[in-house]
Amino acid sequence: METRCWLCDIHPIWSKKKPLCHGCYTACNIKKLLHIFPDTNRKKMKVVNLNKKYGDKIFQDMILLKAGESTLDTVGKNHGLTRERIRQIYEMLFDEKYTNAFALKSKRLHEQKEQSEIEYHKFESRISRSNGRGQTSVGLTAEAAFYEKCKEKGINVTMNRGKSHIDAIVNGYNVDVKCCNVAAFTCKSLLTPYYRFSATKYQAQHVDFFAFCINEYQTWFIIPNIPKNTKSFTKYISSKKINNEWLEAWHLLTEPKKQ
To answer: What domains can you pick out in the chain, each with its CATH number?
Structure first.
């Protein structure tokens, strides 16, 4: 690619449209002779000049920079150039400012972080990380047991990811899993232990059923949240109340949800 004026063959090409220097371009424009010269591709000329100055490696490094796999500092050090010069070369090659590419890279990293967080809080991932200790692990164990129980009974269940206010969706019902290891108190006259669980304000307003497990007896209570409360509450359940209508009442979760 020629870099000197086609007419005088002395001065460098100045025009972005024709292969002419400033003086020759002005003279030809006045005499209306520009049409006899071919149009030039300024970008190709710049690419050729870059190749002469820095070699092929500059193009490989710029592709890595565009893909977000390199930085201005790294490319600059490889070629002994400043960050600003790398910005200029980047804009020259890709017809966009590096700041736009950096914004796209930041957006991509943000999306990757969000996806990673979603994977981290998935039910299966939480179970695999559980070490069986602490209140969180106890709750996860109860959720896993509830999931297996539903699968065993052929009930359609989907466990929500971590940080959700509600643990599961069962046949369209919002179900929150609760569990208790130790009785809250024992009625002295009846010698009956009572176990308790609590619900937040959001759960009180949106949950359809509470699946409450007494770990000591591996007993489940399917408790409907009717009527729905407007604020948080605490409920007490007796393990010795054999005629309790909620005891192992899994059939409540199989009934069609009323609209």
So the answer is: 41-115 (no CATH), 123-254 (3.40.1350.10)
